[in-house]
Design goal:
alpha+beta; about 140 residues
Length: about 140
């Protein structure tokens, strides 16, 4: 482990030396290139948000609860369908007070007389539904 840290430190020192030996013009050129890449990434993200009609056009799976369909680290591209949510759909949702996206399958759909739809979700790799994940007293989620 110490050997890896020394190697990283040596690499950092070499990069720092290279940076310090550059002319101000070369540093500005490198900075401009970096800024262009970042601006392009932000623009692509915004365009995808508009095309997919959702706030965030993709999310990273953070657990193994949907294996074997989705594995930890998978990138999921999102869209907002123009229909009611149905059993088998895979919504991405966040619970109040938690800033972690949950990618689970719709297990049950309940529609009240007033037209309000409530869904119960479940991870494909989990034994039970998500009521244990929901906030206390919450048995369903409201789809957006």
């Amino acid at each position: 482990m110490i050997k890896k840290e020394k190697k990283k430190r040596k690499m950092f020192e070499e990069e720092l030396r290279t940076l310090l030996s550059m002319s101000p013009r070369a540093i500005l050129k490198q900075g401009t290139g970096l800024a262009t890449c970042l601006a392009t990434a932000i623009m692509l993200f915004k365009v995808l948000s508009l095309l997919m009609m959702c706030e965030s056009p993709f999310v990273v799976v953070v657990s193994g609860s949907m294996e074997p369909g989705y594995y930890r680290g998978d990138l999921v591209v999102l869209s907002t369908p123009e229909r009611k949510v149905a059993v088998g759909d895979i919504p991405v949702f966040e619970l109040d007070g938690r800033n972690i996206p949950i990618v689970h399958r719709v297990h049950r759909v309940h529609e009240h007389n007033n037209g309000t739809i409530f869904v119960l979700t479940k991870g494909d790799n989990n034994r039970g539904d998500d009521r244990m994940l929901y906030n206390p007293g919450q048995n369903y989620i409201l789809p957006h």
